[in-house]
């Protein structure tokens, strides 16, 4: 079982009972699992971040029930930050009850559904403005195109449309971080058929394209003067997605996101970067291509009915 750095932050099993009861209750999926502020672990333990003089941040992480999202959440919590976790369902939330107990809260919703994604944004906004949002959740090799409730390819919906919609709907934070992948370099540069309606299904190509689009979205968001926006390639790391044999380092795979989300170092307070293990890397040429950026954001607005940059017409 995971233990926060300060043992006093860990709630007792008795203290977890209300949380577990709310997870098991037949409440709708949009329920917010709010911890009782009077018993929150943060009150029991001095925050290492504040003790070091770093201000504590409030961070929302999508897909924090497993892999890199869960590792990032645990690191940020152990540093004393307020983390809002996210699970696709109450069952998945129950699997991380120990981490939830030390977090600010946990929101629930399936990112394959635009309606549930709207609910996730509403749940997050109920906590006030986040300092940072880490768009981490993702899926990899889907056996087929699938069909979301809105009729989209599932890989596109979870990996691109959901972070696009959350970017539009969550009150804009100071810092936005999007998980891309080195595979984005194999993403097609044409935006024809991004929803896989005409092409025969190719799971690896669909994933690569989705990671090109998300890196491009990160580059576009740098146009907001009040937000820092960056994309991260975590490397090929041993998670449920990466597989046990993945050669890269899980630690290095999540620490770039947590650093970009919270650090006061000048190097972390930049925008429009593409990062790998805390080093700036060149992204594929399309990511910085204004024509490609504009075409992509126009296509995503058509597919979702939501405009990200209203002021851009
Ligand atoms: N692992 C790698 O080698 C690697 C390499 C390059 C990029 N990345 C990127 O890094 C990010 C995290 O990957 P990971 O390796 O940590 O993956 P992971 O272990 O499979 O975890 C993915 C997370 O996203 C959640 N998620 C997936 N679909 C969802 C949905 N429809 N609604 C809500 N939540 C959903 C998962 O929830 P459940 O736990 O319920 O499934 C899980 O919490 C992804 O964006 C991925 O593309 C990973």
From TrEMBL:
Superkingdom of the source species: Bacteria
One Pfam family here: adh_short
InterPro entries on file: NAD(P)-bd_dom_sf, SDR_fam
Keywords recorded for this protein, A-Z: Oxidoreductase
Any one GO molecular function term: oxidoreductase activity
CDD domains: DR_C-13_KR_SDR_c_like (cd08951)
Family stated for the protein in its record: Belongs to the short-chain dehydrogenases/reductases (SDR) family.
Protein name per the record: Probable oxidoreducatse protein
Source organism of this protein record: Rhizobium etli (strain ATCC 51251 / DSM 11541 / JCM 21823 / NBRC 15573 / CFN 42)
